[in-house]
Design goal:
Mean pLDDT: 87
CATH topology: ABC transporter involved in vitamin B12 uptake, BtuC
Shape: globular
CATH architecture: Orthogonal Bundle
Strand order of the largest sheet: 1-2
Strand content: under 5%
Number of domains: 1
Number of strands: 2
Distance between the termini: 38 Å
CATH class: Mainly Alpha
Number of helices: 14
Helix content: over 70%
Largest sheet: 2 strands, antiparallel
Radius of gyration: 21 Å
Structural class: mainly alpha
Low-confidence stretches: 1-9
Order of helices and strands: HHHHHHEHHHHEHHHH
Length: 345
């Protein structure tokens, strides 16, 4: 796999310098558009398109961290996000008198902590394998969790799940309002993006990428290969848990269908569709997925939506393994090549 490191940071660089140095003018334009967007769009575009893109992109970002920088394809990232969502419902409360009704300042951090611990456990089980076996183990974990919540009524309320889940008001702000929920989702997505971007240039991230490229040499150099991979699973689980909490608040409910095989595979498709080798890729893939999910059904019918997604996934894998970002890179390289003067003979 090609290296995803574009530039090796100097040891004297601080955290801010590592993040700010690559900033270009178009980054500022994108930031301005993101800040202005909720004030010039409808509630549908603000929440169902933009906020949902940020949430799905954040969950897919956790997969990108594992697969792009660690070489570990995990199909349990949505499961971890779903566990965080379920824990918010169990510790917080939902309609029908379900839940413990703990204060949000306790329930939300505890839900994220439990999901992160679960991700660490999944990592400890899966890092002993590689390739297809890692995929199968994480897929088995996801399916086991699905059937567990489907059959467990005492804790997870079985098939019915939980409803009436909304973000708690903080400082008198109703986070369910489209503009506020948009900025909440944007903040979490930006936090996850810059965290992964920083990790990719930090010593841990560089070591993780070296483990991905040549684990035998890293082991000979004295690095604990399994410890690095388990730590990556824990960090990815933390990011997925953040997205899971927002996912529950967006849908106002969670049930076994939220963590089934279909949504689980969708996260993989989103990550690969946008580009699994760069942190921005999952968000691009999420935007394409959400737009197709909302508008393609009106054109081709809901029964054929999965067919369209499958065809796009197949084309991306065949012609651009790096996703949409790979297509953009190839187009840019061809444009540069066409502008070079031809040699005179």
């Amino acid at each position: 796999m090609a290296s995803v490191i574009e530039e090796t940071p100097r040891e004297s660089d601080g955290v801010l310098a590592r993040l700010v140095r690559p900033v270009r003018w178009y980054h500022l334009v994108i930031a301005l558009v993101l800040l202005v967007f909720p004030f010039v769009s409808t509630g549908f575009w603000t929440v169902q398109i933009a906020a949902q893109t940020f949430i799905l992109g954040t969950i897919a970002l956790s997969l990108m961290l594992l697969a792009g920088y660690g070489g570990m394809v995990s199909l349990s990232q949505l499961t971890i996000a779903g566990l965080a969502g379920y824990m918010v419902a169990v510790f917080g409360g939902a309609s029908g008198g379900l839940g413990m009704f703990w204060p949000p300042i306790v329930a939300i951090p505890l839900a994220i902590l439990i999901a992160t611990a679960f991700a660490t456990l999944v990592g400890a089980l899966s890092v002993r394998t590689e390739g297809i076996y890692t995929i199968m183990i994480t897929l088995a974990v996801g399916m086991a969790f699905y059937f567990f919540v489907l059959q467990n009524r005492e804790i997870f309320n079985a098939f019915n799940g939980f409803a009436g889940l909304r973000p708690p008001p903080v400082l008198g702000i109703n986070w369910r309002q489209p503009e506020y929920f948009y900025f909440l989702s944007l903040t979490v997505a930006a936090f996850g993006y810059f965290l992964v971007l920083y990790l990719s240039r930090a010593p841990f991230g560089l070591a993780l990428q070296a483990v991905r490229d040549n684990p035998r040499r890293m082991r000979a150099l004295g690095f604990n290969i399994q410890a690095h991979r388990i730590a990556a699973h824990a960090l990815a689980g933390f990011i997925a848990a953040l997205g899971g909490v927002l996912m529950v608040w967006l849908n106002t409910q969670i049930s076994p269908g939220s963590v089934g095989l279909g949504p689980l595979i969708s996260i993989l498709i989103i990550a690969i569709l946008g580009g699994i080798l760069h942190p921005i890729g999952p968000f691009i893939g999420a935007l394409i997925f959400v737009l197709l999910d909302n508008f393609a059904m009106q054109l081709i019918g809901g029964d054929r939506f999965n067919t369209v997604i499958g065809l796009m996934f197949l084309l991306i894998v065949l012609f651009s393994p790096d996703g949409v970002l790979g297509l953009w890179k190839m187009a840019r390289e061809r444009l540069k090549a066409s502008k070079k003067p031809s040699a005179d003979w």
